[in-house]
Amino acid sequence: MGDRVHIKICWSRALLTGWVLLLVQLQHLQAVPIGIDKTKVKETEKKPDEPPASVDTGLHYDRYLREVIDFLEKDQHFREKLHNTDMEDIKQGKLAQELDFVSHHVRTKLDELKRQEVNRLRTLIKAKHDLEGGNDIAVDHQALLKQFEHLNHRNPHTFEVEDLDRLIKSATNDLENFDKERHEEFKRYEMMKEHDRQEHLKTLDEEQRKKEEEHYEEMKKKHADHPKVNHPGSQNQLKEVWEEADGLDPEDFDPKTFFNLHDTNGDGFFDEQELEALFTKELEKIYDPTNEEDDMVEMEEERLRMREHVMNEVDSNKDRLVSLDEFLVATKKKEFLEPDSWETLEQNQAYTDEEMREFEEHLAQQEQDLNQRTVDLQKQREELERQQEQLNAQKVELQQAVEHMERLKSEKVDPPPEVHVEGNTVPEVHAADNQLHPDQDAHPPGHQETPQHHQDTPQEHHEQHNQDLPQQEQPQAHHDELPNQQDVAQGLHNLA
C-alpha cells in the first residue's frame, strides 16, 4: 500500500464485532486513491477524532463494558500496550496484567464503576428473587450467580486485574454464544407457530379444516415463488448491491472500492452490522411485510444465516471482523466467482421431528403444571373464604357478648326504686306482695317470736319493718300510683 496504514484497535469498535477488548481507536485508513464516479458517490464527512458509533451488544452488562472501555482508552500506557498486543494474548488475559500500570485517576474511576455495577446487579437479583420466591417458584441460584461472572463479586469495592480478565473472557464467550442463542429462540418460535396452527385445526370441523390446510399450502407456495437469491458474499451478490444500491456500473465493479463504500464508519473493517446491511437487497426478494405469507421474524433469521456464512468464509482469524485484506483474499477464491446455490429457510426446516415431539411434550407438561397450580390456588381461595366466614361468625358472637355485658352492667348500676311516705322512705309495695302463699311463714325472714306478744301500733310496726326488711331492687314507680298512708300502714300490719 502507498501510505502505511496506522491501526489502533478501539474498544468501542469491538463492542460491535464481538472481540470486546480489542480497543480500536483507528486512524481512518489512508488507502491508495481509486477512481470513483464522484457524481454517484458522495463521501461522508467525519471529524478526524470522532470515534465510531457503537451498537448495543445485547449483553446484560453492556453499559458497564462500555464505561470500562472508555476510561481505559484514556490511559496512554494502556493504549500503547494494546497497540502491541495481538488477539490471542488479549483473549488469554495478558493485556489484563497491564491494569497495574494505569493511572490512579483511571483506577479510581474503575473502582466507582464496579461498585455501581455490583449494586445494580444486587438490586436486579433481589427483585427477581422476590418475584419468583413470592410465587413459590424455586430460585435458580446458579443462574443468579452467573450474572456476576464478568466481575469478581467477592471484592465489590475495587477494580482489579481479575475484574478486567473476567470482563474480557465473559464478553468474548457471551458474544460467541449470542448467535447460537438467537438460533435457539428462532427454533422455539417456529415450533410454537406450528403447534398453534395444529391446535387451531383441532377446533375446526372437517370442511373448515380442509380449507385451512389448502390455504396454508397456498401461502407456502407463494412465499417460495421469488427471484433467485444470490449466494451471500459472492461476486454476483456484491455486484447487485454495487448496481442497485450504489448506482454504479456493474462492469466497473472493484472489490476495494466496494469495501471502502460500505465500511460506513471508515475504520477499515466490516463488522457484523455492516455485513448484514449488504444482504438487504437479497432479503427483499424473499420477504415483503405487506404479504400474508412472509414472516418478518424469519427474515431476520435469514439475515443472520447469511452473515454467519460470510464470516465463516472470509473471517480467517475469527475475530468477528472482516479486514480489507481478508475481503480481497476472499474475492479471489472460486467460491466468490462460482458459488453454489443458496438454500433459503423454506428449504431448511428449523427443527427436526424429534425436537418437535419433545417440544410438544414440554408444552403438555407445562400445561399440566399450570392446571395443577390453578387447582391448588382454588383450594387455597376456598380455604381462605372458609376462614373468613369463621372470623366473621366469631366477630358477631364477640359483639353480642360485649352488648350483653354492657346490658348487665347497666342493670346493676341502676339504684333501687324508693317511695316517700310522710318523710319516711319505704320500698314500693305492689298489690301482689299482699297475697301470701298459704304455706309461707307470715313472719319476715330473720324474724323470731318472743314469748311476750304485744300489739304494735301501725307507726311502730312500720319503723321496725324498715329496719328488718332487706333492700331489694324494684322498678321505678310513678308518683301518681303511690299508695296512700292508710293503705301502706294496713299492708305493713298484715305482713306483721
| Beta strands, count | 4
| Fraction in beta strands | under 5%
Q: Output the radius of gyration.
A: 49 Å
Strand order of the largest sheet: 1-2
* Overall pLDDT: 75
What is the general shape?
A: flat
Distance between the termini: 147 Å
Describe this protein's structure.
- The protein contains 18 helices and 4 strands.
- The relative contact order is 0.07.
- The protein has about 500 residues and is an all-alpha fold.
- The chain has helices spanning about 10-15, 60-75, 75-85, 85-90, 105-135, 140-145, 160-200, 205-225, 235-245, 255-260, 270-275, 280-285, 295-315, 325-330, 335, 355-415, 460-470, 485-495; strands at about 270, 320-325, 420, 425.
- It is flat, with a radius of gyration of 49 Å.
- About 55% of the residues lie in helices and about 0% in strands.
- Strand 3 (about 420) and strand 4 form a beta hairpin.
Write the layout of secondary structure elements.
Elements: H1 11-17, H2 62-73, H3 76-83, H4 87-91, H5 104-133, H6 141-146, H7 161-202, H8 206-224, H9 235-244, H10 255-262, E1 269-270, H11 272-277, H12 280-286, H13 296-314, E2 322-323, H14 324-330, H15 334-337, H16 353-413, E3 419-421, E4 424-426, H17 458-468, H18 485-495
Helix pairs in contact: 2-5, 7-13, 17-18
Give a brief outline of the structure.
With 496 residues, this protein is mostly helical. It is 55% helix and 2% strand. The protein has helices at residues 11-17, 62-73, 76-83, 87-91, 104-133, 141-146, 161-202, 206-224, 235-244, 255-262, 272-277, 280-286, 296-314, 324-330, 334-337, 353-413, 458-468, 485-495, and strands at residues 269-270, 322-323, 419-421, 424-426.
